[in-house]
Amino acid sequence: MTYQTILFEKNDGVATITLNRPDTLNAFNDVMIRETTEAFKQCARAADVRCVVLTGAGRGFSSGQDLADVQNRAEGFSVGDHLRHGYHRLIKRMVSLEKPIIAAVNGVAAGAGCGVALAADIRIASEKASFILAFSRVGLIPDNGVNWFLPRLIGQARAYQMAITAQRVSAAQALEWGMVNEVAEAERFHETVNEWAQRLASGPSLAFGLTKRAMNRAWDQTLAEALNYEAYLQETAAQSQDYREGVQAFLEKRAPRFAGK
Ligand code: LHQ
To answer: Would residue 256 count as lying in a domain?
Structure first.
């Protein structure tokens, strides 16, 4: 599949999606929303993809909605429909993908771009990265699931602060607040992301996927429901080749070789 606004490559079990409109710091236009969604769909279907890295070309991760693009819309343009028919498909696709997604946040992640980074499972930030809920600068509220993801990650007081001040949160601050998993020096950023991606792509992929499903579901379950659901999913995990291999490797005192099934 050829794309106009993103780059897509697969290597050693890792699919890398690169948002590729660097002149706008990778602002999302309709084509980029659609193509990124399509790329995640491709990742879901491809058995040889066991981890996905989402990153940005150039000095930004994503500056959010392309404001020039929406400015040119005709009278009657519905922002609600734009979200429902565009971004929501992308966010839901990411959350329902039962493979780990790493947002490799190379630079600024603003507005909807920050939302997309938050919808990933793991965030690795370059020390040059920053996070801005730019929405209120243009008189909007956070969207793209930011109101759902961010309070869960950093607490409502900090999330609301970020929304109403639209302050630029540095990578170091984001790490301290629990928004990102690791911050890497700019020179070691790609290496760090690759190490994470390789580790995840050679792990027990079925278990990684079921864990994502269990944790996502647990937000709206009681403890009793969550325990039940875990037992149900564990039944599946325990029938996997990777479970047999993991136990065998432990008993033989060697590193496991997970096949991802
Ligand atoms: C851009 C953008 C951009 C177009 C930089 N668009 N060109 C959902 C549904 C519908 C409607 C509206 O919104 C939403 C959700 C949202 O995402 S709302 C929030 C939208 N995003 C923003 O408000 C962020 C706007 N950008 C900025 O505040 C700055 O560019 C940041 C802080 C991200 C980076 O600042 P700098 O590093 O100083 O870069 P810059 O401002 O010089 O930008 C570089 C170029 O990128 C520049 O173009 P130029 O031709 O002058 O070099 C910008 O115009 C362009 N650009 N963001 N969102």
So the answer is: no
